[in-house]
Design brief:
alpha+beta; Extracellular Endonuclease, Chain A; seven-stranded antiparallel β-sheet; two-stranded antiparallel ribbon; 6 helices; about 30% helix
Length: about 300
Amino acid sequence: MIAAFEVISVITAEINLSRIYKYPNMKKSQIFRVAIPITGVAVFFTLFNYLQKPLTAQSSVSVHLTMGNPSGANTSYSNLLLVKPQYATSHNCYRGTPNWVSWQLNTSWLGSTDRQDDFRADTTLPSGCYRVSGSSYSGSGFDRGHMAPSADRTNTTTNNSATFLMTNMIPQAPNNNQVVWANLENYCRDLVRNQNKELYIIAGSYGTGGTGSNGYRTTIDNGNVTVPNRTWKVIVVLDRPNSGASSVTNNTRVITVNIPNAQNVNSNWRNYRVSVDSIESATGYNLLSQVSSSVQSVIESRVDAL
C-alpha cells in the first residue's frame, strides 16, 4: 500500500489542479472515471477515502466566481484562492496584496449598515503567508484601498466588516482611491439602485511602484507589501439579477478601466476606459472564462462608450 499512496498523491494533486479548478462543477463520479483506469482497484479505494476528506484549497464554487476564476487561483502562495461569503480573491503572499478580488453586486447586498472601519489581518491565511495588519500602511502615504468596497456590503454588519480584511486591500494613492476609484464605485451602485442591474465586478492591480502623498514607493511595511503601479476593474452589467454567465451576450455592457496608482489622476473614470483584452494582456488572466468564447471575443475587445 505504500506504493499505492505514493501514486495516489501524484494523481490527486494533478486532478485537484487540472480538473477541479478548471472544471469546478466536476462530480466525484467523473473524477473516479479519470483515476480508475490509471491506478487499478487498490488505488481506487485509496482515492475514495481521500475524497471524503476536505480539500486543502478553499472551494472554488461561489457566486462571486460566476464569471470565472481569472488566474486559476488554488493553493499557491502567489495565487492563493480565498472564498468568503462576501467576495472571492486570489491573494499573493509575496506581495502582501490580492492579485484580484471578484464579487457580485445587486440590491440584496445593499442596506443601511454603518461602515465598520475595523481594518485587520486576515487570520484565515496559512501560517507561512505574511499577514498584513491594519497598521501596516501607517505613514506610507497610501490609503488602505478596498477592492470590494465597504459600501457594496451594507446589508449586514458581518458583511460590511468582511470588506475590512487586509486581504481585500492594496496600497492605493489617495487621489486614486478617494476620487476616481470612488466615483466609479458610486456609479456602479447607482446602476444597481436606480436601474436594478446586477453587476459582476473583478478588481485588481499589477506592476510595481506608485506615487502616494509622500512620494514614490515600490514597497511599504518593511518590504512586505508591494505598491502596485496600476489599478484596474472589470464590470459586467446584467439586466436581470441571478441570470449568470450564460446570460452574457454580444450586447452586454462591460466597463473596464486601467488607472495609474498616482496622485495626478483625473477624477473622471471614463477617461481611463480600456478593453478587457488589454487587462488580460497586462496581467495574463482570463477574466471572463465562464462566458462563451464567441461572446468573449466580442465583448472583451470592445471599449465601453456609454
